[in-house]
Amino acid sequence: MQLGVIADDFTGATDIASFLVRNGMPTVQLNGVPTRDIPLTSKAVVISLKTRSCPAEMAVSQSLAALRWLQAQGCQQFYFKYCSTFDSTAQGNIGPVLDALLAELGETRTVISPALPVNGRTVYQGYLFVGEQLLNESGMRHHPVTPMEDAHLGRLIERQGRGKAALIAWPIVARSPPRWRQSTIRRCAMWCSTPSANRICSPRAWRCGR
């Protein structure tokens, strides 16, 4: 198994599973963390949880259980799938889950990029847009559970997590991949454990992935 995805809800799990299959990666989607080993031949497995709006402690516990199950199946890479509108307040789950997953994997930094251009979710200069509107100027500002009052990803994640965020801005992403990687490593080492990358179009998403 090459890729293990931990998704915080069923819709997000279905979205990413369909994207993976569409791009040539055989994928299995599971609802919840299995209680036993499952013989799988797919290259990717997506585990759908219900942690998008639950207490942070519960989200961390279930996400770690999913990670450990994927590790036991021989998974090599891991992806935490959260909502492309980053539904999470200062007391929310995304930061604590990221911190827990990084600690469990022995890592100190990751890239935060909730953009999904095909659905109109884009990031520019660290700000998350829904269509042509800033996140906090869209209908998400009045969400009954997770009202989004700030569109800046760096501020959002620093309120939740233990790390410091640094912006990998559009001019850097637009460079050649070697320069992008060098800048990413330098900025991570100097400033942060959870950087935020710009993504405004799908080709750049592939560049970020590399």
Automatic annotation (TrEMBL):
Keywords: Plasmid. Residues 3-182 form the Four-carbon acid sugar kinase N-terminal domain. InterPro entries: 4-carb_acid_sugar_kinase_N, 4-carb_acid_sugar_kinase_N_sf. Pfam families: SBD_N (PF07005). This is Four-carbon acid sugar kinase N-terminal domain-containing protein. It comes from Klebsiella quasipneumoniae subsp. quasipneumoniae.
